[in-house]
Design brief:
The protein has 425 residues and is of the alpha/beta class. It contains 14 helices and 18 strands. A hairpin with a 2-residue loop joins β2 (18-23) and β3. The two termini are 36 Å apart. It binds fe (ii) ion. Fe (ii) ion (FE2) is lined by residues 57, 59, 118, 210, 309.
Length: 425
C-alpha cells in the first residue's frame, strides 16, 4: 500500500498516461498502469506534472517592501541601490521575517519550492542574515531556501563588508556572493572576485556573484570569475548572475568569452523581468534589452537559469512568485520562440536552477523526492503560454496547496460556452 498515486499524468518530456507512485516522501514508480493501491489516489486527467519551480536568484530581504520609505522614481539600478540604503536602517527582524514568510506562502501556491536568495551583509548588525536564517529553518518542511552572503555595497568598497560577509558564513549562510562591477575600479572588482572565490574554495562553498550587471561592454568580471573557478577547481559550483554587459559586448570578444565560461563550468543566471526594466536606461533609441546572451550560452552547453530577482522592492514594483511569468519574459526578450527554445525556457525555471543550487533528489523519476506540481496545461509550452494554474502542489508526498482551475463562462448572442484556453489536439 503506497501513500499516494497520481494517475494519468503527462510529463515534461512528453510521456503521457503515466502513473506516479509515492511512498515515504519519495517517488518509487513512474510507469503506465501502476498496479498498486494507495491511501490516496488522484486522477490528474492528463495534466502536466513537473518537479517544482526553482528560483536561482532572489532577494528575500527586500521583497514586499515596495514604497518603503519611498518608491524608485527613475527605475534605475543605482536609485534602487540608494533607496535600499535608505531602507536598511529602518528594517527590523520582525518586518524581515514577516515579509519573507508571506513571500514563501506566495511561492508555495505557485509551485515554487526552492529559492536561492541573496542576503545583504553590509549592515554590520546582520539583521537580515539572522532573520533569513530563521526563515530558512521555519520553511524547511515545505521550501528549500539557500542563502548567499551578498555584499551589496561592494566587499572592498564598503568598510567592514568582508568581515561581515565572513561572519555571515560563520553563522551558516550557504553561498559566497559578490558584486565586482560595483567596486571602485575594474582592478578592485577583479581583486574582489579573487578574494571571494578563494574564500569559497577554502570553505567548500558555492559562489554566486552579481556580475557585470551593467550596460558597459567593458565590464568583464565574468572573465575573471571563470579564471578563478577553473584555477581553484570550483567547476560546477560557480555562477555568474545577471551578466548583462554581455548584451553590449562586441561579438568577437564574446566568441572567446563563452567558451571560457563553458570550460570553467560556470553557470549563468539571467533575470529577464528585472534586466529588461533596469538596463538600457541611459539609452535613447534604440534601447538595449539588457539581458545576457541566453540562447548562445545554452547552445555552448552552459547551464542557464532564469531568476525572478525582485518582487515589489526598491528595484521592481511588480511580481508574484510566478516562475512561469519569468520564463515567459525570458522567452520574449531572448526571442526564443522555437519549440525546443520554448522548452529550454521551461527548463530554465526548473531543472537548470535545480542543478545550480545542487538540489538533491530533484525530478520526476524513481528515487527522487516526491515534490511536484500539477499544472493546468498539457505541456511545457502551454504552461508558459497560459502561466498555467498550479492545480496542486505536493511536497514530500503531501498536498500543500490547491488552486481551482482557471475557467470562464461566456454568454453571447446564440452561444454560451465554457472557456478553458486550451487548444484540443
Ligand atoms: Fe540580484
Amino acid at each position: 500500500m503506497l501513500d499516494l498515486i497520481l494517475r494519468n499524468c503527462t510529463l515534461a518530456d512528453g510521456r503521457t498516461g503515466i502513473d506516479i507512485g509515492i511512498e515515504a516522501g519519495r517517488i518509487i514508480a513512474v510507469t503506465p498502469h501502476l498496479a498498486a493501491t494507495a491511501d490516496s489516489i488522484i486522477d490528474v486527467e492528463g495534466q502536466l506534472v513537473t518537479a517544482p519551480f526553482v528560483d536561482a536568484h532572489f532577494h528575500m530581504d527586500s521583497t514586499l517592501s515596495y514604497g518603503l520609505p519611498r518608491v524608485n522614481e527613475s527605475g534605475t539600478l543605482l536609485e534602487g541601490i540608494a533607496l535600499w540604503g535608505e531602507l536598511k536602517p529602518l528594517l527590523t527582524q520582525e518586518m524581515l521575517v514577516e515579509r519573507a514568510l508571506a513571500y514563501c506562502d506566495w511561492a508555495v501556491a505557485k509551485g515554487l519550492l526552492a529559492i536561492r536568495s541573496h542576503v545583504d551583509v553590509c549592515d554590520p548588525r546582520l539583521l537580515a542574515v539572522e532573520a533569513l536564517l530563521y526563515v530558512r529553518e521555519k520553511v524547511k518542511p515545505y521550501l528549500d531556501l539557500q542563502l548567499v552572503a551578498f555584499p551589496q555595497d561592494g566587499v572592498l568598497r564598503a568598510p567592514g563588508a568582508l568581515a561581515n560577509l565572513i561572519r555571515a558564513l560563520d553563522m551558516g549562510v550557504d553561498v559566497v556572493g559578490g558584486i565586482p562591477h560595483f567596486e571602485r575600479t575594474m582592478s578592485e572588482g577583479a581583486e574582489s572576485v579573487r578574494i571571494l572565490c578563494e574564500l569559497a574554495a577554502a570553505r567548500g562553498l558555492r559562489v554566486d556573484m552579481h556580475c557585470d550587471e551593467s550596460d558597459d561592454p567593458m565590464s568583464r568580471h565574468i572573465e575573471t570569475l571563470a579564471l578563478h573557478a577553473q584555477r581553484l577547481g570550483l567547476q560546477g559550483r560557480v555562477t555568474g548572475s545577471h551578466l548583462t554587459s554581455m548584451h553590449s559586448m562586441d561579438n568577437y570578444y564574446v566568441s572567446k568569452l563563452i567558451p571560457l565560461i563553458r570550460e570553467a563550468g560556470v553557470a549563468a543566471i539571467a533575470n529577464p523581468l528585472i534586466n529588461i526594466t533596469l538596463q538600457g536606461r541611459h539609452d535613447t533609441y534604440p534601447k538595449r534589452r539588457g539581458m545576457t546572451r541566453v540562447p548562445e550560452l545554452m547552445a555552448a552547453g552552459v547551464t542557464v537559469a532564469f531568476g525572478h530577482d525582485c518582487v515589489m522592492d526598491p528595484w521592481y514594483p511588480l511580481g508574484s512568485a510566478d516562475m512561469l511569468e519569468v520564463a515567459q519574459m525570458g522567452l520574449h526578450v531572448a526571442q526564443m520562440t522555437g519549440q525546443d527554445a520554448m522548452r529550454a525556457c521551461f527548463n530554465a525555471v526548473t531543472t537548470a536552477p535545480a542543478t545550480i543550487l545542487g538540489l538533491e533528489g530533484y525530478g520526476i523519476a524513481v528515487g527522487c523526492k516526491a515534490d511536484m506540481v500539477v499544472l493546468q496545461a498539457r505541456d511545457c509550452v502551454e504552461a508558459i503560454r497560459l502561466r498555467a494554474t498550479r492545480l496542486m502542489v505536493i511536497r514530500a508526498g503531501k498536498v500543500i496547496s490547491l488552486t481551482p482551475a482557471a475557467t470562464a463562462m461566456v454568454d453571447l448572442p446564440g452561444r454560451s460556452s465554457k472557456v478553458d484556453w486550451m487548444v484540443r489536439r
